[in-house]
Amino acid sequence: MRVLFTYMGAPTKPDEIEDFIFRFLYDIRHHIGLDVPGARAIIRGIAKARARHVRGHYMAIGGKSPLVEYMKEIAKAVSERKGYEIRLGMCYSRPLLEELNWDFDLIFPLYHVYSSSTTERCLLRIRKLFGEKPYVREWWANEKFIRWVRRNIENGLNESGFENPHVVLSVHSLPKRVIDEGDPYEKSHRMLARKVMEAFDLPWEIAYQSRFGRGEWLGPGVPEVLERLKSEGIDEVLLYPLSFIVENVETLYELDVEYGKVANSLGLRYYRAKLNHRDPLLSEAIAEVIENAGGK
Predict the structure, then answer these.
(1) Which of 11, 33, 146, 179 is the most interior residue, by most CB within 10 Å?
(2) Backbone angles phi, psi at 272, to 5 degrees
(3) What does the pLDDT look like over 71-94, one tens digit per residue?
(4) Alpha carbon distance 29, 241 (integer Å)
(5) pTM: predicted TM-score of the whole model, two decimal places
(6) Per-residue pLDDT tens digits for 121-141
(7) Sign of the C-alpha dihedral, residues 140, 144, 147, 148?
């Protein structure tokens, strides 16, 4: 059984940021009003400007994003567990899908919650390059995966030393119009959150991160929630990134550095629970989903 793990990708080093942004924006140019004469040059200029801003985030976390490396570790763990041949192919960063000279049997998106903006974009690109292939649509409801999320939160509670924290589950935001058009992303995250948190006797809520650009996005944002919680007399906040399975710039910089500063300025005790992708429960969950999808 040969399985393609896929994701939109992420730059590993600062000098990869511009090309990543360019590939992404050029691919969606039809949807953002940039499918015009001279689009390549226009988008290259946007990518250059955005990259200058994002490089500072990379430098603040040591100059490197571990996302690709950690996803390769997950692939290796699942392969060793089940004997599958697994490779990683990204839409917009290396290892790029178009550089993958390999025939595979099943597509496994590393997005546990389906969205037309993430999972479907990967699937569309794969269809264009390789034709129709069987795929896993989403896998957040797997019981072992839910236990893995709970374990990460439990570890965070133990590490924080908090006695009675308010739990904030952060979800990567999307433009609200995507949800209004029928995307199940928001509803699925809410169902996942309820399943996870039924094991805890703690107050909790969902907040959104990584909003950018114009238009209305899913909210409220994490900073808004932190401000409200402080005004309500909450002293301890444990935050967990429900949208991700491995650490990346959006957890290591946005949640730890940027929102950490917000919490500190408010006088909140704030702890961000970590994503332990090396916990065997995660590779067991993924292997189980692949097996149920026909990977015997």
Answers:
(1) 11
(2) -105, 115
(3) 999 999 999 999 999 999 999 999
(4) 29
(5) 0.94
(6) 999 999 999 999 999 999 999
(7) negative
Beta-bridge partner residues of 118: none
Going by DSSP bridges, is the β-strand pair 106-109/166-172 parallel, antiparallel, or unpaired? unpaired
Q: Look up tokens 């990584």; give the residue.
A: 210
Q: What are phi and psi of 211, to 5 degrees?
A: -80, 140
Identify the pLDDT of residue 213: 64
Q: Is the pLDDT of residue 35 over 90?
A: no
* pLDDT given for residue 212 in this prediction: 72
Question: Model confidence over 37-51: pLDDT tens digits?
Answer: 999 999 999 999 999
Type of residue numbered 204: W
Tell me the two tokens of residue 123: 């699937």
How does DSSP classify residue 165? P
Domains in the chain: ranges and CATH: 2-138+282-292 (3.40.50.1400), 143-272 (3.40.50.1400)
Q: Are 32 and 25 in contact (CB under 8 A)?
A: yes
pLDDT averaged over every residue in the chain: 95
Q: Are strands 85-90 and 2-7 parallel, antiparallel or unpaired?
A: parallel
Nearest C-alpha neighbor of 5 from the set 53, 72, 58: 72
Q: Report which residue type is found at 169.
A: L
Percent helix, percent strand, percent coil in the chain, to nearest 5: 50, 15, 35
Which of 3, 2, 1, 12 is CA-nearest to residue 249? 12
For 3, the enclosing helix (H) or strand (E) is: strand 2-7
Extract the tokens encoding 157: 């509670």
User: What phi and psi, each to the nearest 5 degrees, are found at residue 152?
Assistant: -60, -40
Contact between 223 and 262 (Cβ < 8 Å): yes
Mean pLDDT to the nearest integer, 218-240? 97
Whether 24 has a pLDDT exceeding 60, the answer reads: yes
Nearest alpha carbon to residue 209 among 264, 268, 266, 169: 169
Q: How many CB atoms lie within 10 A of CB 205?
A: 14
